[in-house]
Each structure stands twice: as C-alpha cells, then as structure tokens.
Amino acid sequence: MDRTPTTNQAATAGFSLDRLLTLQEVRLATTFGRSTIYRLVDAGDFPRPIKIGPNRIAWKSSSIAEWMAHRPLAA
To answer: Which of 32, 36, 44, 49 is most buried per CB count within 10 Å?
Structure first.
C-alpha cells in the first residue's frame, strides 16, 4: 500500500504546498532583470528568496503573487 499522502491529505494536515520559483521564473513573472530583483530584495521592497541548497535559492510562489497583487501600478 502506498503511504504517500495525497494533495488533499497534505493540505488538511497543515502542510503548505507552496511552489518554489527559480530566478528565471521570477524574472518572467515580474519582467524584471536579475539585478533589479536583487536590488529590490536588498532595499526590502521585494520578497527574500529562501536557500534550498548550497548554491540554490528560490522564491515561494505565494510571496511573489502577494507582492504582485500589492505593488503600485505604473502610471
């Protein structure tokens, strides 16, 4: 019998199934370049990435979506 929890079981158990986005995916979603993203992170104006390995970082999709929903629109 497979003991791997289903998506519904994981969600009801309190686990977050937030997708992790690579820098390339964040660049595509925001249309920002690499330097702009890191400059905004350093200024505290963009979500911080999380470290997922010795040389790997990623962003939670929910934090990027929330940032995009609350950012001011260009005039």
So the answer is: 49
The span from the CA of 50 to the CA of 4, in Å, is 26
- Number of domains present in the structure of the chain: 1
Statement: residue 20 has pLDDT above 80? yes
Is there a domain that residue 4 lies in? Answer: no
Mean pLDDT of the chain: 87
CA–CA separation, 10 vs 61, rounded Å?
18
Q: CA 21 to CA 58: how far, in whole Å?
A: 5
Q: What's the pTM value of the predicted model, to 2 decimals?
A: 0.73
